[in-house]
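Good morning,

Attaching, inline, the backbone tokens for the sequence recovery test we're adding to the shared suite. The designed sequence is right after.
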């Protein structure tokens, strides 16, 4: 095939430059694991909206999205609240943990999250489970999440999307999941969350 073949068009320099620029917008990104949950309103639509909002965040790219799980509410009497839809999202980001937390809260507020009772029903929960290998007891943002290693609704989807995952300071997610068990966490194979394009 000769280079004069009219069906072979070179990639315009401007396109190459845009692709290269997109690559360097996340120079030296950090890995973070984010847990999403909803038990009010259109739960699936809310989770997808949160994923899309994360992807729209400058300095952040969503790299993987877990299956949807339906789970019993945590810390309340059975039957007093609707079940949750939960998922885990893996992201790469150049945002520091404090900015990622602010963005998570802004996304919750956009979905009218109300924080008036502990373990109360919520339209959306956005929790940073881990950020790279950071271990911090800062009361504003404790890393990794102080209770996530005991919660099947975090560990099951996280293990699904990254079977080799390590929970900073606590070991393999798969091992923690063996200890905790999977009671009350059901995969919803009929539902799907899309990875943003």
């Amino acid at each position: 095939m000769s280079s004069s073949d009219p069906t072979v068009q070179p990639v315009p320099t401007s396109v190459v430059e845009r692709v290269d620029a997109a690559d360097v917008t996340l120079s030296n990104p950090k890995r973070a694991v984010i847990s999403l949950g909803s038990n009010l309103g259109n739960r699936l639509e809310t989770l997808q909206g949160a994923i899309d909002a994360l992807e729209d965040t400058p300095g952040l790219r969503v790299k993987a999205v877990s299956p949807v799980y339906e789970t019993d509410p945590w810390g309340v009497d059975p039957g007093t609240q609707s079940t949750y839809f939960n998922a885990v999202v893996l992201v790469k980001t150049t945002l520091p943990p404090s900015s990622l937390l602010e963005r998570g809260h802004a996304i919750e507020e956009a979905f009218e999250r109300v924080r008036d009772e502990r373990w109360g029903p919520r339209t959306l929960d956005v929790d940073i489970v881990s950020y790279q290998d950071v271990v911090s007891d800062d009361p504003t943002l404790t890393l990794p999440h102080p209770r996530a290693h005991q919660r099947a609704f975090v560990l099951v989807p996280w293990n699904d999307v990254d079977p080799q995952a390590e929970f900073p300071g606590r070991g393999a997610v798969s091992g923690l999941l063996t200890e905790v068990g999977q009671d009350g966490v059901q995969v919803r194979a009929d539902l799907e969350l899309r990875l943003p394009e």
